[in-house]
Amino acid sequence: MCSVYIEEVTQALTHKNIINKYIRFPDTPAARQAVSQRFYRKYGIPGVVGCIDGSHFKIVVPPKEEEHLYYSRKHYHSLNVQMVCDDEYRILNVNSKFGGANHDSFIWENSDLNTYMQSLHRNGEIVWLLGDSGYPQRPWLMIPFLDAESNNYNEKHMRARVVIENTFSRLKNRWRCLHLFVVLVTAKLLLAPVVQWVLVKQQLWFCCHLLLK
Fold it and tell me: What are the protein's GO molecular function terms (predicted)?
């Protein structure tokens, strides 16, 4: 019986209307400016509208014909989930389409958000994401200077980008089903806690309790 309720709650939380409402990248210049101003006040880097990274979430062994797509460099089967968050740990974008065999840069190059950020750049909007050295340097995606041991930009970049690492850590610690040593069955079981995390950040946790009644 419990499995039925889990399925119903998961389906409700991962409905496209819910996801589009609560996991939403800033879609207006004013919204992006508000985020970038907060980043600048906290970390001294202008134009930042989010920090990006990928994290591996362990899954059960998939069918043999697909297994190679999910076997990661960490030597287990996983989803390599790309997320973007703002300075307040709000998740702005999630891409859980790719298996653990795919590199962060490949997932980024094949993501809708990459296309969207490029369109902003073509329209003359000077905003970007912060990523680590696993991503390509682009006018809309800034990474550390790899040939500099220490400089002011790298230090500010590192302090700002740690918010996405902390977001993954907090997400996995709050919902232990996402912990490294517990397997996931489907991507939806990953997205449900992500949506709940956004609800918590927006002080709407009571909605989840209503769904459970």
Answer: hydrolase activity; metal ion binding; nuclease activity
Work out the pLDDT band at 206, boundaries 50, 70, 90: very low
> In this predicted model, what pLDDT tens digit does every residue of 47-95 receive, in sequence order?
999 999 999 988 888 888 888 998 999 888 888 999 999 999 998 998 9
In whole angstroms, give the CA distance from residue 80 to residue 78: 6
Q: Which amino acid, one-letter code, is at 161?
A: R
Please state, in angstroms and rounded to a whole number, the distance separating the CA atoms of residues 27 and 14.
21
CB within 8 Å of 35: residues ≥ 6 apart: 26, 48, 49, 50, 86, 87
Q: From CA 97, how far away is CA 82, in angstroms rounded? A: 9
Return phi, psi of residue 148, to 5°: -125, 125
CA atoms of 87 and 90, how far apart (whole Å): 7
